[in-house]
Specification:
two-stranded antiparallel sheet, about 0% strand, mainly alpha, about 70% helix, about 300 residues, MetI-like fold
Amino acid sequence: MTPYLKRYWQLYALISLPLIYFVIFRYGPMYGVQIAFKDFNLFQGIGGSEWIGFDAFREVFAMRDFYTTLRNTFMLNFLDLIVSFPAPIILAIMLYEIRFKWFKKLSQTILYIPHFISWVIIGGIVYQLFGNQSGMVNGVLESMGLNPIPFLTEKNPWLVTYLFTGVWQSAGWGTILYLAALTGVNKELFEAAEIDGATRLKKIWHITLPSIKPTIVTLLILNLGHMVTIGFDRPYIIGNTAVREYSDVLSTFVYRMGLESGQYTLATVVGLFQAVVGLIFVLGSNFISKKVTGEGIL
């Protein structure tokens, strides 16, 4: 084993960096999970706080706001899965079919840029475009004699705005994974299909999609694992009190409980709940996927 380590020490040095990252930032914070079972006192610390068992869990599960935010989290993630998940697949296939390289590169650049923009900036753009009073879109509608649309102040228009903002921000970046998978497709399959008289749509259906099926299944399972977890930035920045019935999710609930109210025990309980349910979703979706499609991640 020692000669092998000496020979390939560069590879072990490279893998050590992500391992160190996971140990420090993923496994290290697990020590704080015990806060969920303690009456946490900031001055006494984790070790000095009193054990209370599952009392905090019972308190959280008795809260009406918890179930409202849980419902909203499931709803927004499920709608995101329906709207946002197919978008990068469709974009990747469209880019793969483009024959002009200069146009393909230009399209990829334009599509990737939103991923690198902060949600704070995106939120500002959304309010500039879709605000009720000063929004550009409503200004154009009013100039045409049409009624303004309450994109950000009524539930259903806000929901559509939220979903399609997410597609715009994430779809381009997601295409990278599918384009990488498409580069491994055997070109001879397309040539054989063309000789047999297959149309472009038939080649996409019978060659392109089956070729990226493992990637689609893997990403679908990972997305299902995040059905209970949701990013804080997007619903917090785009949401407001007028649409709080939809925009209030578990991440904003944890923020209010932990940072605004100082109830760190309750916030940790919700975080632990998300992690456990997320693990169950990943294992369950992986099991079902293996039974139905024969593909999985484990």
